[in-house]
From TrEMBL:
InterPro entries: DUF4267 (IPR025363)
Pfam families: DUF4267 (PF14087)
UniProt keywords, alphabetically: Membrane, Transmembrane, Transmembrane helix
Lineage of the organism: Bacteria, Bacillati, Actinomycetota, Actinomycetes, Mycobacteriales
Record protein name field: DUF4267 domain-containing protein
Keyword Transmembrane helix applies: yes
Length: 125
């Protein structure tokens, strides 16, 4: 049962990060707003960095899907555990950039929490 719950949560994490990555490519201002730091996307270099973030988010989601499909339960758990540094760093970046605390904790903090729970479920399976 813990493996099933872990797999479902991992699938939701993968889908969410792929969606977020696509949003950074398709609607960079909206993506940045959801992240918690809104840069001037009219500057070509800023828009480029947002697209780079989008591509990396999509790839991260695909890594999770590959491990899910392969049935690599423990490896998936370790990867998700290691990747938890991403939302933790994102929360710190939002807070240090004067972004909303509600996004830092409510989005990035909650994501880190779900990822830790998911990793634990997969690693104890």
């Amino acid at each position: 049962m813990t493996t099933t719950i872990g797999y479902v949560l991992a699938g939701l994490i993968a889908a969410a990060i792929i969606f977020i990555g696509a949003r950074f490519i398709i609607a960079p201002r909206v993506g940045a707003g959801g992240y918690g730091v809104v840069p001037d996307v009219s500057q070509p270099s800023v828009a480029a960095y947002l697209r780079v973030k989008g591509v990396r988010d999509i790839a991260s989601g695909l890594f999770v899907i590959i491990l899910l499909v392969a049935g690599a339960t423990h490896l998936l758990g370790w990867v998700i555990l290691a990747a938890t540094i991403i939302p933790l760093a994102d929360a710190a970046i939002v807070l240090n950039s004067g972004g909303p605390k509600s996004i830092a904790w409510g989005v990035h903090g909650a994501t880190a929490t779900v990822m830790l729970i998911t990793a634990a479920l997969l690693l104890i399976s």
